[in-house]
Amino acid sequence: xxHDSGVGVLDKASLLLSVLETGPxxxxxxxxxxxxxxxTAHRLAMALEHLRLLTRDTRGRFxxxxxxxEMAVEAHGDWMLTSAAVILPELRDRVRADVRLxxxxxxxxxxxAGAEASTDPAQRIATGAAFPLTAGSVAxxxxxxxxxxxxxxxxxxxxxxxxxxxxxxxxxxxxxVGEWGAGTATVTAPVRGPGxxxxxxxxxxxxxxxxxxxxxxxxxxxxLDAAIQLSAGPNA
Length: 236
Hints:
Layout: H1 8-20, H2 27-34, H3 38-50, E1 54-56, E2 62-64, H4 66-76, H5 79-95, E3 98-105, E4 108-115, E5 130-132, H6 136-144, H7 148-155, H8 162-171, E6 174-177, E7 184-192, E8 198-207, H9 208-211, H10 215-232
Helix pairs in contact: 1-3, 2-3, 5-10, 6-8
């Protein structure tokens, strides 16, 4: 991504944000990576944190803030979220598992909506929360139908292979165990927009003891059917 808009302060802010796309970073690392002076980097980071474009992790490192995820939700439009408000709770109640909708935003997966069955706060994921596209069934679905060049770049840091994504394309869904915790199983299917492009991923997750270590065998079709309903929009 370029950082030469002609507006100096925006270019510096963009450069700083790009460092955090790969994960948390200390002020020292931001300075070393961007070449910004420490006072400039600190001033920009404080301003971006005030705007909720940055926040801090438990170690005090800077991370991308919740406002970025919220903007991704807003930019996606209302049609899919209108359907999700009905379809996600229905699927949750049917399977008694957590159901979430994710969208790709750069090299992150952003939670657009959720219907939680779990009462464990550690298993809950807030709307707008963002995670790397490096592991798990959601990342696999959001990347499986990408163009070859983008797919090649994504696989350089992913913990799954091109063969894994070929299997996702063949079946129409992905599964993983341990994505949200050692005892959690997940199965995910693509939501498509006009023209068949994958625009989101619908994910079902729950305890391995109930969903099994091969959740796709039992729930793949169920999740895929719900994803197709979401693809059709509010009038499905």
